[in-house]
Amino acid sequence: MKKLIFRKITKDTLAFFLLISIILGSIVWVIQAVNYLDYVTQDGHGLKTYFLFTLFSFPKIISKLIPFVFFIALFFTLINYETKNELYVLWANGISKLEFINKILVISIFVLLFQIFFSAFLSPFTQYKARLFLKDSNIDFFTVLIKEGKFINVVEGLTIFIDKKNSDKNFTNIFIDDSSKNQQKMIYAKKGEIIENNKKKIFILNNGQILNREKSKFNIFQFEEINFDLSNYTTNTILEPKIQEIESTQLLSCYSNLYRQLFVNQENYNFSCEKSILKEIKQELLKRFYKPFYIPVVALISCLLILIPKSNIRYNKSKNITFLLGFFVLVISESMLRYSTTSNLFFLFYLMTPFLILISTYFFIKQRNNV
User: What is the structure's pLDDT at 147?
Assistant: First the structure.
């Protein structure tokens, strides 16, 4: 009988947890997808790249929502049980509150492992894949972004000004600034056309001049037709992987070597493993592997709801306090993470906090109910 009851508790909690995760995750994903439209409207990437990039960001969203969603799911599941007198049924069947709390903690441990899997492995993998989509894509919407009388600088090291746009790929009075640190290069053409050749974008320029300036020397060349290869230029979008997109194994290896002040072979990493980012790596590892330990803490805080039955006049007040307390712990877990690497004292305090809250809350419930 007890197994059936505990199985129902687990099923109801996890089902509600998955439902809220999908709903909230989808809402956040849509909002974030709108923000990512800049990759199309400003950086010139195609819709396929945009869709894949936003799609592969979904695990990151779920990873961030898991602690809060699990707390909400468990909180309202316990309220629903109390409202339907199902908690009373548990106690009537000989299930002690201590057994119930232990079962909730077991469920929270499974969610904790689920969170670590997402934050430490799946999310970095999908974020890195999303970054590769940007890196490997061409500027599909380059021609669409070209407007009359507007400077276009969607690619690095290149600025284009079009006086008149005749069609999607034909232009009149074209000015191109292809300057670098060591050389200034300006191109003017009366006409131009953009064509695609073997997945390359070629700007065919007609009847114009090229002005080169290197140091104090000026050179002017006349041309009837030249091909200006746009494929040689990269987008202004950040293409290098960020810390949160790096595999956990690489971060652990880099942190270990830097911490022990060993020589780091950059060829073993797809990011700059330097001592200047040691604190960032440490914070990222804490977020992936240690922050999920706050999940059992908020799970136990939710169990404060079993202390007072709904018939008690203080029940509504108890619900509000329990919710605020759980929400406060989640905010604290996020806030303390930002300062966890500022000093050894903050680091130690961050490590101890979840266990101190967990132990104190557990003994508080046990003493309050004499279980």
Answer: 65
Bridge partners (DSSP) of residue 170 are 193
The residues that bridge with 218 in the sheet, in sequence order, are: 213
Enumerate residues 6+ apart whose C-beta is below 8 A from 234: 155, 156
What's the pLDDT score for residue 143?
54
Alpha helix segments (H runs only) across 118-231: 123-136, 142-145
pLDDT score of 2: 67
Q: Which amino acid is at 33?
A: A
- Which pair of structure tokens corresponds to residue 170? 């034909």
* Distance between CA atoms of residues 364 and 361, nearest Å: 5
User: What distance in Å separates the CA atoms of residue 157 and residue 179, rounded to the nearest whole number?
Assistant: 7
319 closest CA partner among 135, 42, 80: 80
Query: 279-295 burial by CB neighbour count: b if 16+ within 10 A, else e?
Result: eebbbbbbbbebbbbbb
Query: Closest by alpha carbon to 69, among 123, 18, 121, 8?
Result: 18
Find tokens 């069947």 and name the residue. Answer: 93
Looking up tokens 């493993």, which residue turns up? 273
226-270 tens-digit pLDDT = 887 766 555 545 556 778 888 888 888 888 888 777 656 666 666
- 154 neighbors 143 (Cβ within 8 angstroms): no
Q: What is the pTM of this model?
A: 0.73
For 49-113, give the DSSP string: HHHHHHHTTHHHHHHHHHHHHHHHHHHHHHHHHHHTTHHHHHHHTT--HHHHHHHHHHHHHHHHH
* Partner residues linked to 177 by β-bridges: 159, 186
Return the half-sphere exposure (C-beta side, CA atoms, 13 A cut-off) of residue 49.
23
